[in-house]
Design brief:
This is N-acetyltransferase domain-containing protein. Residues 145-286 form the N-acetyltransferase domain. GO terms for molecular function: acyltransferase activity, transferring groups other than amino-acyl groups. There is one protein chain. The chain is 36% helix and 31% strand. By secondary structure, the chain is of the alpha+beta class. It folds into two domains: 2-119, Aminopeptidase (3-Layer(aba) Sandwich), CATH 3.40.630; 134-278, 3-Layer(aba) Sandwich (Aminopeptidase), CATH 3.40.630.30. A hairpin with a 5-residue loop joins strand 3 and strand 4. 38% of the residues are buried.
């Protein structure tokens, strides 16, 4: 097996975009990295490549500055563990900076074991999520209320929610200023949605974070504790997903914590189904 590295995202996409688009929601992390890098090669150069066995591609990977290395499996019939180990050796031998790893569990396990044979470090698991996708909305009874775009005057309390989301869902803290910048940008770009109950109290939020070629990725799904269990998040996801599907997108996709069975079942009622998984590990230098 060999690692083939491309000189830039453009050449990588020329060879691989068509195959990645066949499973766009599953390959979205690598694809989105490549699109971001292609749009701005100076700030988002990144590293893109594949692991091959003879002429067959087994794994795709992207390694963007400040992001985890993302790995997508193209060929499940090959030895993906060996491919992950070959990739680990390549990254270690070439002293390529890693922030962490986002991939299926089997890839993460094999990569980390091999990488640590060459580099003194530890990896900490941060997230274990299922990738879900929807292509057709189910007809279900929704919680009363409405979904609407967030407005600039709501940025401060939504920023508080964003900080809480990062702590609860991502097991990490971010500084308030970073969260404020993120929320402001999402609101300005008309990508952050809130759900109001019948009394016009805002009770849940979600955002369309990534526009893909044929679909939209939804993230930052958060409901304050006092409003949970009332169906508000599911209603918000239903309305947002319906909006984007009605506008001509082929699918919407989101990541849900493997341990969060309540959310998973709620999304399944809306019409989402699991298509893959992503584990996230952060690299901690020894």
């Amino acid at each position: 097996m060999i690692v083939k590295v491309y000189k830039n995202a453009e050449t990588y996409l020329l060879d691989n975009e068509a195959i990645l688009l066949e499973e766009e929601a599953a390959s979205q992390l690598v694809l989105y990295d490549a699109y971001q890098s292609r749009q701005n090669t100076k700030e988002n150069k990144g590293l893109f490549g594949v692991v091959m066995d003879e002429e067959q591609v087994i794994l795709h990977f992207s390694n963007m500055p400040s992001n985890n290395m993302a790995v997508y499996i193209q060929n499940e019939n090959k030895d993906i563990r060996e491919a992950a180990m070959v990739l680990a050796d390549y990254m270690a031998e070439n002293q390529i900076q890693l922030e962490g790893l986002s991939a299926k569990y089997e890839i993460c396990e094999a990569f980390i074991d091999q990488y640590r044979k060459n580099v003194k470090c530890t990896f900490a698991e941060r997230m274990a999520t299922d990738i879900m996708e929807i292509r057709q909305i189910h007809d279900i009874k929704l919680a009363e209320g409405k979904t609407r775009l967030a407005i600039p005057s709501e940025v401060k309390f939504i920023t508080d929610w964003m900080v809480q989301f990062q702590i609860e869902a991502l097991a990490k803290e971010i500084d308030y200023e970073s969260a404020l910048i993120k929320v402001t940008k999402l609101i300005d770009n008309n990508r952050l949605y809130v759900f109001e109950d019948p009394y016009e109290t805002i009770v849940s939020m979600a955002s369309a974070t990534r526009k893909l070629v044929h679909g939209v990725a939804i993230s930052y799904v958060y409901t304050p504790e006092e409003y949970r269990g009332m169906g508000y998040a599911a209603a918000n996801i239903y309305n947002i997903s319906k909006k984007y599907l009605d506008e001509g997108n082929e699918f919407c996709t989101l990541f849900v914590d493997k341990k969060n069975m309540l959310s998973k079942r709620a999304y399944e009622k809306v019409g989402y189904y699991i298509i893959d998984e992503i584990y996230e590990y952060k690299l901690l230098q020894a």
